[in-house]
C-alpha cells in the first residue's frame, strides 16, 4: 500500500509542478502588465504637467481679451468694494448669459487665491481637461485612448491667442457630454446616473459658450442614430427600440430648455441697427447685410494655420508637426496592421461623422453675425482637429503602447517652445507693470492703442492694455465687456463716452470724450501728437515704458 501511494504521489508531482509553473507565469505576466500600466499612467501624468507648464512660467499671458476678462471678473468679485469705482460703474446683470461659467468660476477661486493665480488654475484645468475629456469620449466609444494626449498642443492656437477663454473652456465639457450621452445609451444598469450627469454637463456647456452648445445640437443626434444599444438585438418595433434610449433623451431636456429660455431672452431684446457701425447690427439678424463671410478658399487656407499661429517666428508649429508625425504613423500602421475594431459597422461612423459636423460648421457658417456674435466659423477649426485625431484607426495593442509614449513625448517640445515664447512676451509686456505703478487708485483710463502688435506674438495682444491698469487699481476703462449682453455685469447708467471702436483710436475726440477720463494709456504714438498743447497745461506724462505712455490729468 505504501509503495503504491508513493508511486501515485510521484506521478502527480510533474503535473503539480506544471500547474505551479503556469500560475507563476500568469503572475509574472500580470506583474509586467501592472508595471506597464503604472508606467503609462506616470508618462501620461508627466505629459499633462508639461502641457500646462507654459501657463506658469511667465508673468503675462499672450491673450488679446484676457485683460478685459480679468477686469470684469475683478469688478464682479468686488462689486460692493467702496475703495474701487466698481459700485459706481457696474451693476449685476440678473439674466441668463452664456459667459456666467467662466466669470463666476474664477471669481469663486479668487476667494482662495489671487485673481491671476485663479485664472491660471482655470486655464490649467482647460489644458489638462482637453486630453482627459477626449480620453473619456474614446473610452465610452470602446476605442483606444492613446490619441487623447495628442490634443495637448492643440490647446494653444488661434482661439487661445484671441483669449476666447469661454469657448475654450466649453470644449472639454462638450467632449464629456458626448461621452456621457454614449454611456447613457449603452450602460444598461447605470443609464439614469449617466443621464443625470449629462443633464448637468450640457447645461454647464451653455453657461460657458453657446457656439459649443450649437455643435452638440448636431453631435448628440448623430450619436443617437449611430450608437447601438444592447436591447436592439431582441427589440421588435419602434417603441422597443426607443425605450432604452429614453434616459439619454431625457438627459438632454434641461440643457435644451435652458437654451430656449436664453434664446427668448436674447432675441426679445431690441437690437441696435446702425449700418456700417462697429459692434452694431447692420440689419435683421440673418439678413445678408448683417452676415460677413469668408470665402471657401480662405477658410481652406486657414484651417491648419489657425491651429498654431501664436508666435511670429513660427516656433509653435513644431509641437504640431510632432503631433502630425505621430498621427501619420498611426494612420499608416492602422492600414498596414489593422486591428479588429471594437465598433460595429454603423458605430464606426460615429467619430468620422463628428469630424464632418465640425468641419461643416467651419466651412458653412459666416465669420460674423454683426451685433450678435463675431469670429464665428474659425473657432471650429480647433474642434475639428481634436475630433480628427480621435478618429485615427485602431492598431494592435502592442503598437498602441508605443503610440501612447510617442503622443506623450509631443508635450516636451510644447513645454519648451511655449515656455520660451510666453517668457519672451512677458518681458515685452512688462511695460504694463511700469505703468501700473504710476496709475492712481480708482482711475478712469482711456485706451488709445495705435499699435497693438507685439514683437513676439502675432495677435494684437496690447489692444486692451487699459483694462490691465484699471483692474490693478480698481478703476474703469473706455471699453469694457460690460457693454455686451453676454457679460454678467452692466453699466449702472450711461456708459462712459468713447470712440465707436477700440480698434480706431484716431477717431478719439478730446472735447467730447477725453474730459470723462483722468488717465490715458497711449501706445504706438507720442503723446504730443495726440494731445498737442494740452500736454503742457492740463495733462502730463506720468510714465513711459517700451512703446507705451501713461498720461495723467494734472
TrEMBL record:
Residues 1-33 are annotated as: Disordered. The keyword Transmembrane helix applies. Keywords: Membrane, Transmembrane, Transmembrane helix. The chain crosses the membrane at residues 42-61, 96-114, 121-141, 161-182, 194-225, 245-265, 318-337, 349-368. This is Glycosyltransferase RgtA/B/C/D-like domain-containing protein.
